[in-house]
Design goal:
This protein is α+β, with helices and mostly antiparallel strands and 282 residues long. 46% of the residues lie in helices and 12% in strands. It has 11 helices and 8 strands.
Length: 282
């Protein structure tokens, strides 16, 4: 009976098996839906398999069946285990599923990286909390662990944001200096964690969309300055208490983005998203 080996009493994975493996939560309503089945299939292929051992959790002592990856969609609570037991997926009746495994498994299940999958779940948990009240707690138990990159080009982008926020440079100066640094960071392979990644992307988009018409450029520049000032303030406190991984982000970000450097902080508007490329608050 594989359920007894892989599933703990509280509905998560048994620590004896999952210890040392990456565990990622995903939104899943009603069992193994089509999206979850596709991710499970991709994980199996990356691991070199074409089937799972699948056992129902709603039936005590249910035996496991060998199910091909082309036939995984099914309602209800299930545990799906790879033949070599290197990866598994556990569905619940509470709006989410858990996936656990090593790097090869997650190369298929979480192709953008485990932290990116966790970030997506954290956002969904906030959005769906009224419908599935367990999701915020599940998100808190699976924090984002990727630290902010301290590469020199990334730090220079952050410093340029600070300079614009405190009025040391103009939007035109930022536009002139930003793109070479951005390209250098990409060439060096520097990576960032959320929420800094989103901020840098939106500043890039705002600069890229900056109008060449002087009459419209002033409007774009005002929106850009407002967004950057607000982003600096929000990044300086971008964590919730009790979440170890997110606290780690806060510590890195506070070292790089000092809210005291913002010019006229009283004038900063919270949750400003009207800069070009900024479609939603962080």
């Amino acid at each position: 009976m594989i359920a007894g080996v892989f599933v703990a009493g509280g509905g998560g994975f048994a620590e004896e098996w999952s210890g040392g493996k990456g565990v990622v939560p995903v939104v899943a309503v009603g069992g193994v839906d089509r999206a979850l089945a596709q991710r499970c299939a991709a994980a199996a292929r990356k691991s070199g398999f074409d089937h799972y051992s699948v056992a129902a959790l709603d039936v005590a002592g249910a035996p496991a069946d060998l199910v091909p990856i082309t036939d995984l969609v099914r309602p209800g609570r299930w545990v799906l285990v790879l033949p070599d037991r290197s990866g598994a997926v556990l569905t619940t009746a509470r709006g989410y599923a858990l996936a656990a495994g090593g790097p090869r498994f997650h190369a298929g299940f979480s192709p953008g990286g485990q932290d990116r999958a966790r970030i997506a779940f954290h956002r969904a948990a906030r959005r769906l909390a009224d419908r599935f009240p367990d999701l915020p707690d599940v998100a808190a138990r699976h924090p984002v662990e990727t630290p902010v990159d301290r590469g020199p080009h990334t730090l220079r982008q952050v410093e340029l944001m600070r300079e614009l926020a405190r009025g040391a440079i103009s939007p035109a100066d930022l536009a002139e200096r930003w793109f070479p640094v951005r390209r250098a960071a990409a060439r060096a392979g520097e990576r960032t964690g959320e929420p800094l990644t989103t901020v840098l992307d939106r500043v890039f988009t705002a600069l890229d969309d900056r109008s060449t018409d002087p009459a419209l450029r002033e409007r774009d520049d005002d929106a850009l300055v407002t967004y950057v000032r607000d982003a600096v303030v929000r990044l300086s406190g971008a964590a919730s208490p009790g979440r170890r991984g997110v606290r780690r982000h806060r510590d890195h970000l506070r070292a790089q983005l000092n809210a005291g450097d913002v010019a006229d902080p009283v004038a900063v508007k919270p949750n400003v998203v009207d800069a070009p490329g900024a479609s939603a608050p962080l």
